[in-house]
Amino acid sequence: MAEEKKSETHELGIAARLARPNILELHPYRCARDDYDKGVLLDANENALGPTSLPTNSLDPPENHLVLERYPDPYQLELKKLYAGYRGCGITPAHIFVGVGSDEAIDLLIRIFCSPGRDNILCTPPTYGMYKVCAKVNDVQILNCPLTPEFDVRIPEILETVNDQTKLLFLCSPGNPTAKAIPLDDVVAIAESSSYQGIVVVDEAYVDFSDKGSAVELITRYPNIVVLQTLSKAFGLAGIRCGFALGSPDVIQLLNNVKAPYNVNSMTSEVAMNALKNIGTLDKNVGTLLEQRKVVSDALKELDFVVQVFPSDSNFLLFRLKRFAKDIYKDMAEHGVVCRYRGTELHCSECLRVTVGTPEENESFLKLLQETWTKFDASG
């Protein structure tokens, strides 16, 4: 395990050029499990008598195959091997960071590469809100280059907006709330441009619902691309909080150096590995959701009060109403069906975002949407 946590800067490529000097000089915390993980373990001040609770909520008899009294693998090597095998594209465990959702990786990337009060990131609104939140927390300036009204990136404008202090450029693909994937050619165009010298971060939380391909295939050719992924969406494991950053090994090494010592717990790790051994269920569920996405999309397009249903590469749909979007959202929630109001986002006036659910949930949503519109339109 110990070989994963190094701090020698001579092995670093783009990371050495872009990371904050204090990060490159960091001597990372050394876990007890960096040295030994077998034998009579009396080195980490754990409680050898065992846990006081188990996931099964049963201590008699105890079922403790995870050995929860012991710290987990700090680098999740077995999980990384499985994930590398699933994603392919020449990816190895050295290309993978495992975190608490992809949000941990967003925060770590900003902390590693952006000096507070000096550096900046670039976002392309409307987009995922955590980029802005993490930047604000770390006192990092935010540059914005909005998408077009059709939710396409504007490459010339992006390259005009970045400057020497722009260390990270976030592209959400498929986007949230846009649901639209960014063509890989656009990602490559930015990564290859001499006008931008930072890292392109492609956030692919919804990639398994898209047929447009993944930027993972670019990683071994472009050390300035980092891809974020998660088990929260297509894998249906939002409750375990497990995400990944995939990128050049020198960038991944810094993420490992800076992260908390045991950031991913044993229960999360086991569920994640089991999921990666059960890809048949993933494929089946994704297929069902894509079928239901078309059902819901087609139904929305038939409603005269729906002005626009945006194309979707994700497991949700963004659509625009004639009016009353916020009121309808609130009233539907009070009657038991919750979607998301996105009307305050750029290019999203009078827009709602709805996740594709089970057939029964989708029917309930469509029925209540029509009933709620009729109520507000009559009183309008």
Could you explain the architecture of this structure?
By secondary structure, the chain is an alpha/beta fold. It has helices spanning 14-18, 21-24, 77-87, 101-113, 130-137, 155-161, 184-192, 249-258, 266-276, 279-301, 325-334, 359-379, and strands at residues 96-99, 120-123, 141-144, 166-172, 199-203, 225-230, 243-246, 306-309, 316-321, 340-341, 351-355. Residues 1-11 have low confidence and may be disordered.
At a glance:
By secondary structure, the protein is α/β, with parallel strands linked by helices.
Please state the average pLDDT score.
94
Report strand order across the widest sheet.
1-7-6-5-4-2-3
Largest sheet: 7 strands, mixed
Helix content: 25-40%
Cα Rg = 23 Å
Detail the poorly predicted runs: 1-11
Which features characterize this protein?
380 residues; 12 helices; disordered N terminus; seven-stranded mixed sheet; 13% strand; four-stranded antiparallel sheet; alpha/beta
